[in-house]
Amino acid sequence: MKIEHSYSKELDAILVKHSGVFSGFEAGSPMSFGIGRLAEVYSCNRFLLDARDMKCDRSIIDLYFMGEKFDKLGFKRKFQIAFVYSQDEELYEFLELVVQNRGYSTRFFKDETQALEWLMNGRS
Fold first, then answer.
1. For the whole model, what pTM was predicted?
2. Any idea what the CATH number is for the domain that residue 88 is in?
3. What pLDDT is recorded for position 115?
């Protein structure tokens, strides 16, 4: 799996693009890229995570337990995260429910424009 990131001054958000196959948050995996460190480097708590070129090979049960790992990966409840996907809709809808139930300000979108609107409307 490949991960690229940049900062958009216009959006005041960190843009993270994922591609390849997501197989979990295990230590050393590309998905454990340190979102908390990015927030510190850019002094920003808003993220657009683009997973349209990523394939998730995890089950719904795996995703339920992944929600427990968000804190360990540096995800903070103060972050506002818009997640854009193009496939695996059932999995991402379930993951949205899991992370929101755990108190994270995270929304999942199939449309990037809607994701950006949500991020912009939540900007303080």
1. 0.81
2. 3.30.750.24
3. 95
